[in-house]
Amino acid sequence: MSESTRTLVVTSALPYANGPIHIGHMVEYIQTDIWVRFQRGLGHHCTYVCADDGHGTPIMLKAEQEGMTPEALIEKIGEEHRADFRDFGISFDHYHTTHSPENRACSELIYRRLNEAGHIVRKDIDQAYDPIKAMFLPDRYVKGTCPHCGAPDQYGDNCEVCGATYSPADLADAVSVLSGEAPEFRSSEHYFVRLADFEPVLRQWLASGGLNGAAPVQPEIANKLGEWFDAGLQDWDISRDAPYFGFEIPGVPGKYFYVWLDAPIGYMASFRHLCERRPDLDFDGAWRVGSEAELYHFVGKDIAYFHTLFWPALLHGAGFRMPTAVFVHGFLTVNGQKMSKRTGTFVRARTYLDHLDPEYLRYYFACKLSGGIDDLDLSFEDFCRRVNADLVGKVVNIAARCSSFIHRHLGGRLSARLAAPDLHREAAAASDRIAALYDAREFGKAMREVMAIADRANRYIDERKPWVLAKDETKREEVRDVCTVGLNLFRVLMTFLKPVLPRTAERAESFLRSGGLAWDAVATPLLDHDIARFEPLLTRVEPKKIDAMVADSMESGEGSAPAPAPDVGTEERIDIAEFAKVDLRIAKIIGAKLVEGADKLLEIRVDIGDGERTVFAGIRAAYAPESLVGRQVVVVANLAPREMRFGVSDGMILAAGPGGSDIWLLGVDEGAKPGMRVK
């Protein structure tokens, strides 16, 4: 990469300090971490900070419920969050808390500057008040009947049935979720930021073009901001009444900063805390107007409003720089549904870690993530297949196969020459293309590029058959040449995958004994070099471990575990007459190719004796198309043709195995002829 060195400050949204991290949260932290690791791998100065969001009514009430102080609660939860992030390989430079001296100082400074500039106004508002708990209630702490559709048990801010928004006073049959009593509505003076003051500068920010002409938000978010502008920006309430856990507003006893004021300021506070311990970092230089440093926020689409309106307005109004960009992502569904404790798909990060390698999830999310805000789905079946086929079957398998020959027959040393320089050069030349995809957060496309290289590497090894060559002692150097090419391609692959699989990459570095896998070194092959004996870098996903994780995620007393798969022989049986209707024929494969737009399928042309047919088979992970031509297989010849998105499949090729790369075509005797029936 020829790009000059950049200075970046990167944040993820602050997790709330009243509960555990779950895998839905991990979408964001994994996405951010991959991007940060990639930027660091290019040599850029990239600082990644985050913090626990430790203020607000829910934390105050949760602490009361658990018989501890709010400070003790957020410290306890903070330790759990740090452990989860550490074990998922999230590479924060610093992880702080919003309940800190730095955040208090930054919040008070921003408030004072906004107030002095005339952007703060006071208004009396009516609020729901719980006379039993003696406190004003956040909107979400009031429930009742929706005034629009009549749905019962809806929160005081919006209806989850019809989507209408309203105030708690609009609800019918309203009650406090804390006491169950009907709330009173009392007047209280609150402090507001006049967001309309900042509409011109926010519009200018959106139209600024950002870095290299890129917009500071995605098109979908820009369109939504346009709707908010057209509707008119409303004053934003930044105060809450006591009792409240947070920072008291200076000079206003009994009034506290609303959590959504000091939460994003926590980004600044975490960075300031780090700067005080890192003389190489410059807080003022990063946050001043006109700074050459780049500031990026990764957030979910549910909080885009706060990060693309309130936050830039606060920064500008207080004399600080605005973000270079806010990257918004979608939500996670599991098996096509909203995460659920009843079905065991609401999986905590720690529960996942108790059963599965975090690198599996990092890779799977990378395969699904793009630069847009679409939701992504975690299908456990697809998760198992993709990890086993791609990482274990394609990438790690190269190292396992080649190293065994190098150590068994050739003293563990690579060849002094590269027998297929064009193949290696082609793989290394993908670095700029893959780097551009990483930088644009198009991780799914980057993973497809990487796996295409893995396919070519495996095809090269399969075509040269080192396991056959090794049987002839006179061809041992040819074996060394083939395996040297394979291991150098593996090195390229692991360099490209290092931002996604940092721990697997570390093990690969130890195995190759070549120092760190550096992005700018992929074009230089590793030759005449000793490698270590191979140790498993990543093992296969075991479906039973996924089942155990789901079982552990079941909410106690709710629902039941999925029924176990039936034992062989317990399924509904058919009689011999029904089976005799199946026409099994010998067929010869005369052509095969990849199906564009399909991850699993190959388009295969077969000769079954009385003509040719086209069959689509889901064996792409197990067989390269070229390796199939000339093979004889068993097909179901009288299966009704099936119309597919890619064409018509006229028959079925029989195979066995659990799926992914573990699929085996049924063997056929060499003397069999196309068209012969299988008895």
Describe this structure in words.
By secondary structure, the chain is α+β, with helices and mostly antiparallel strands. The chain has a five-stranded parallel sheet, with helices on both faces. Strands 19-18-17-20-23 form a five-stranded antiparallel sheet. Helix 7 packs across helix 9 and helix 12 runs antiparallel to helix 17 (476-497). The longest helix has 30 residues, at 380-409. The protein is globular. The protein starts with 6 loop residues before the first strand and ends in a 14-residue tail after the last strand. Residues 556-572 have low confidence and may be disordered.
Descriptors for this entry?
five-stranded parallel β-sheet, globular, five-stranded antiparallel β-sheet, 25 strands, alpha+beta, 679 residues
